[in-house]
UniProtKB/TrEMBL annotation:
TRNA binds at residue 224. It comes from Algoriphagus faecimaris. Cob(II)alamin binds at residues 61, 134, 155, 158, 169, 217, 242-243. It comes from the Bacteria. One of its GO terms (molecular function) is 4 iron, 4 sulfur cluster binding. The gene is queG. Belongs to the QueG family. SUPFAM superfamilies: alpha-helical ferredoxin. It is found in: Cytoplasm. [4Fe-4S] cluster 2 binds at residues 199, 215, 242, 245. This is Epoxyqueuosine reductase. Binds 2 [4Fe-4S] clusters per monomer. Pathway: tRNA modification; tRNA-queuosine biosynthesis. Keywords: 4Fe-4S, Cobalamin, Cobalt, Cytoplasm, Iron, Iron-sulfur, Metal-binding, Oxidoreductase, Queuosine biosynthesis, tRNA processing.
Amino acid sequence: MLSPSEKNAQLIKSTAAQLGFDFCGIAKAEFLEEEAPRLEEWLNRNYQGKMAYLANHFDKRLDPTKLVTGAQTVVSLIYNYYPHKKLPENPEDIKLAKYAYGEDYHFVIKEKLKTFLEILREKIGEIEGRAFVDSAPVMERQWAQKAGLGWIGKNSLLLNREMGSFFFLAELIIDLKVEPDSPLAKDYCGTCTACIDACPTDAIVQPGVVDGSRCISYLTIELKDAIPDEFQGKMENWAFGCDICQDVCPWNRFSRPHQEPAFAPPPDLQGFSKKDWVEMTEETFRKVFKKSAVKRTKFAGLKRNLQFIASNKS
């Protein structure tokens, strides 16, 4: 006979599947003791660049009970975003990260998580909980690994043996006791260094450690100042984000197209040529990226990226 915590785990996993999540893993909410020194060293080396917010809420990042009073469980969820067709067709054209092809994932997944909590409350009763989608001090990759969903690869991303890494991570932190899954103890990267070798800005400084201030995603999205000249000729036409370390990862041969209509690129974007990018007006930007995560750079930020790419002399 199942214990109450095992029944809760069953309910959570069936609800996750019903809502379209590809994988669901469960971990006990506790202080991430092993991560504390790693996070501290990463911050001390200034690998966060100008992302000052990453140094805030140090304790909350490591302890989920500081985010939800009485938290007992962290539910980690995987939601696929691998596209049906890569953009652009010509590799010499301007590129944006695959996660940004369609609607902003924060809103799409947050709605699902709200529904998730409502279902749990209907079936179980009043529970305290919060939903997170890359929007608060939660160490999502570490929790996903602890919940058995994968391992942290040399590019610092969570890798899953069945679907690679082209997916979003989301979490529910709840005060409900749930039977935890076993962490994935093995690292399946082996001796492969494809991601390290392919990174044009040498952002992967050692296996599993990325100097964020050198990452093309940081340079094109998070950095608000001018892109440093040392990256001239190294951007490889990425105007928003970068997928290089994922594209070369052998585990991503298992990626399969997502089933989320909201992640389909709008028709205008599908036919975008290099000329369209270069001549883009603010009106076009607002129209094409109305619901997109690309809005984070604002029009001025995207133009800065495009100008920097155009001035690149490799």
